[in-house]
Specification:
Chains A, B, C, D, E, F: It comes from Thermoleptolyngbya sichuanensis A183. Chains A, B, C, D, E, F: Keywords: Nucleotidyltransferase, RNA-binding, rRNA processing, Transferase, tRNA processing, tRNA-binding. Chains A, B, C, D, E, F: It is an enzyme of class 2 (transferase). 6 copies of one chain form a homohexamer. Chain A contains 5 helices and 9 strands; from the N terminus they run ββββααβαββαββα. Chain A is of the alpha+beta class. Chain A has one domain: Ribosomal Protein S5, domain 2 (2-Layer Sandwich). In chain A, α1 packs across α3. The interface between A and B is medium-sized, with 31 and 31 residues. β9 of chain A pairs antiparallel with β9 of chain B, so a sheet runs across the interface.
Chain lengths: 240, 240, 240, 240, 240, 240
């Protein structure tokens, strides 16, 4: 390989991933998701009602908000105020779309789930960690609604996980950390279901371009990573 | 095919595409790009200097703004005010990234090109039309800078075009118009160079998910469409 | 004359004026109005309901929005955001008031017409071009409402046109272009009906002051110009 | 006359006008201007420097801000926040332009005068009262700058006063109060110099239209009113 | 005493205090409160209805807004726009809480009183002057509601007054003016009822800290001042 | 006692308090402070330079930002956007003032410390927990600056802790939790130094009023609580 990972990881090796469930008490689901040094607090809260365009449809909704705490990065970053950056809006739209794919909205009924992804520490991969951790919090929130009788049947229809992959010196690597993210020529975010079906695919050439062969290498490695994340989510959800 | 196109087009057939160059006079490049009923006015203006993070680097910059006129859609849409929607921000970031890939920023030098993409009429595909038409306006702006002696050599290093593709009833279709866009299960935007190398790939499952086989079908059809757009751009640029 | 017009026009001569009807398809009325190099896209859209202060009155309303595209001027201008400039607000209030004078609001009924005046190219006289072109788009919108049976009788009660006049070296000139607008001591906008009755009169001494004799000279020349504009509107509306 | 004034005033009679100079202590000029029940606190403050577009020109500048206190009207009005209404912006631009006409900006030198017109009580005519009272405060501010030696010669070159006139039942009336303002078909604001030369003329047909004959009647009556206001300003400025 | 007051006042001596009732005509209560050079226009307006959280409770509400006119201070201050400063928000919350303590909200019924405190001139003590003067305006507003029959019984249950006290060179002083306010180590605002019971106590060490002994000295002197203010309010309210 | 604490605590008993130091890695100081169920992440970051009003003074500055995560409360709360609530601004000003009292700004030199207090879980007492925990994070940040040689001597001059106290049924209680906070008639926040000297005292009668005797009871109990908090801070700082 032309690129040796600073962390010593293999090209297709994830960083250590961990989900601390019930990190806070008031949200229906609350998970502190760790992916290496990246830490995202994912909470799911439930509110009655749905946005205007769904009123009376009998369907539910899920929306996401994403923010970084100012101290999450080595240089303090000002809080976003007055208007969200384009980057933040893109990320929270991606999180929302991805986790909506987990749900049967008819079965959820006219209630709104809000996924708040607050990044406590950022070492790249915050959006994919938010999706993967957000799924765990979503399961806890659904379990809570079932336990209180608010829901009779689970609206969960897919397990969802996400990972970033990238090209460095023309080769594919899994789960980039910050120094790798900066060095990567191509940066991909991949969201998949429990069957490794694609939900979302976003790839950008920061420099140069990429071929369809390279695209396939990136997707192969993403499948490996997501396969592992799906298992780690299951393990976390089995533990009480 | 399970889906018959309302327009009678073939699955891999573009809508009629046309570039009206020099549509307005004050911008260095000004192109009214038509793609079927979609009309986007793409202008490129030149300003000295670069954003803070590039000052003193000797490199230039290109940035994009995207807006819809309120009367561009069948129902009047309010102008975006106070804050841009997430959709608008995503689109203008995509246009900017895609057209930056056309340029050698060192050769451009410390000046900023602004691509304004104002949608006069929207019938789906506005962001890809903005990129494809924006490339033509960019060529005109560079030609202008060369003619005035502001630039000695062209910083253009790649030709760029973009197209949307989507899955309808599980099959791949090129260049969706509005009724198709609404009906599509999967929606992709693809940006490529003159060699059909990938610059950007964004695919979202609005409903369901997609396999890697389907991804390949979508990319095949996108290559066909972009190949044609590259020729149409060349024709437009050859005409005086 | 102390001032020779750069364009060679007579003191009481309009620039070439042209109205491209049905410039876009989705608005009820859509006119690209040209006045010399000035180009304003005037669209009229129809929405049910009226502002709060008119609810239940049986009366309709007309409101206007005015913006310049960033590339409309030789130097790119930033889009107005967060707050509209005082100039923009003055202009859109003027357009709204002037075109409301064309209508019998009772006959319009409880619907709101929105006139969007988007300046594609600015060479002075944008607000008066927006009014004169907006009237043509308004006629098309009313014709559309009559053709669909939404309206049974036309609420149009006056034809409206507007022109700018100014004093240069103490003499009155019609329809100033940009270099003249900058040089003018006194700048007037005049809005009149088909009978040359005054609807709005706004004059500002940018430098010095003006006498009532000069005011009369300005109004004489404005009457000439508006007389001609009224004919050009009629011609445009007669052509299919 | 078809209209009998509720106040019993003659058609060409002003309301009682009074200027309380030095109403507050910290501004260079501070005048509480009364025109009937209308009360506007006009202050003039002086700051070094000028806006960017004048830097290095050796010229000074005057700018105006206009606001209503929430309790100035019979129904409390919310403070303008986030964005100023079009009405407020039009008014403060008018006040600024009118009072700039009083000054020789070269003689003022590179300093900025800010006229704050805060309406304590509103019974129509607030903008013209702000101009007429603002002129008195401006004289006090200039006198202060002369007394401290900041200025060696007065930059005042014109005396400025303003009045509103309107058509009611087709006839011209001077200085409308609130019930008249609401009933008027045509509403004019007129700003003139000590020689009754016109500085600004703004007339709007709220209903119907007006002829040039009526315009002349309105201007005749405005001259009468402004003539009187010019004398009242002089009297106020002579008193210590 | 280590500190000699620039004004020659005793340590426990108020500045001259005066309440001009009915300063403007349209508000139910309108008082121009003077405390030395500090002038605050306090108006109370009445609106039907209450904020959401009180709807249907049968209780009324009182809210306050506080602003400085730009010319209130020796250096002109920009108007607060887009967002209120933290200082302004703290002050208007304090005024609101303090004057709510004067009222039996059940007896007021579902209406909202708005206290606008607009500082015309600022020489320290503006927030306490706003409370003390606002109480007088509140009494006038209640009297008005009783006189019109809108209220049958007075909801006033406490008389409220406020004063500032501070430590200078370690000793307690009453009613600081601006030069004292700047020099004070400790700054207290004290709000009390007619029985000298405490409603609000806010003390901040700008420099150093303070002991409980000093706190008691400050409260002793505040009681003296508030005792006097309570009498002055009564006198003002007795005069017609 | 008329009030029995739901938690079974004594009137002068704190909730369990715990400081998790180095909770995140990128800030110079990072402490997750627990006070019962209340959890506040307090980070201190260091930036070169100071606000304008201190430039060139040789002095440093400390500022604070306070926010609640949306999921911190049983009902999800919208993020504050566009403008901060008055409550939030009051709190962050209080945190900033209180922690500035800990520092010798001359010894800090021209650098700015930012204390971010992000409430992960809110059960009353968030502002006092932010101050008490923020002090621990501040010590860690100063130790870091000493360890890197950025500072030669510690600018810490006071230890700072804060607690809330309140009156319930007329008696004083320490460290109110949420159900108590809602029920309290009087609510006090007290900030003190290592010598129990007062830095800040803020008391508000939500209902009724309070006597000076009650004030003294509240301060007695606050001294007890702060004495304990000072010891807990010391213990946390001694542990590595």
């Amino acid at each position: 390989m032309a690129w040796t990972r600073p962390s010593g990881r293999q090209a297709d090796e994830l960083r250590p991933v961990r989900f601390e469930r019930r990190f806070t008490r008031f949200a229906a689901g609350s998970v502190l998701a760790h992916c290496g040094e990246t830490q995202v607090l994912c909470t799911v809260t439930v509110q009655p009602g749905v946005p205007k365009f769904l009123e009376g449809s009998g369907q539910g909704w899920l929306t996401a908000e994403y923010r970084m705490l100012p101290s999450a990065t080595p240089q303090r970053q000002a809080r976003e105020f007055m208007k969200l950056s384009g980057r933040t809006q893109e990320i929270q739209r991606l999180i929302g779309r991805s986790l909506r794919a987990a749900l049967d909205m008819k079965a959820l009924g006219e209630r709104t789930l809000t996924v708040d992804a607050d990044v406590l520490q950022a070492d790249a991969g915050t959006r994919t960690t938010a999706i993967t951790g957000g799924y765990v919090a979503l399961c806890d929130a659904i379990a809570y609604l079932l336990s209180t009788g608010e829901l009779e049947a689970s609206p969960l229809r897919h397990q969802i996980a996400a990972v970033s992959v990238g090209l460095l010196h023309g080769e594919a690597f899994l789960d980039l950390d910050y120094p790798e993210d900066v060095a990567a020529e191509i940066d991909f975010n991949v969201v998949m279901t429990e069957e490794l079906a694609l939900i979302e695919l976003q790839g950008t050439a920061e420099e140069g371009s990429f071929s369809r062969t390279q695209l396939n290498q990136l997707l192969d490695i993403a499948e490996t990573g997501i396969g592992e994340l799906l298992k780690l989510q299951q393990q976390a959800l089995r533990s009480s």
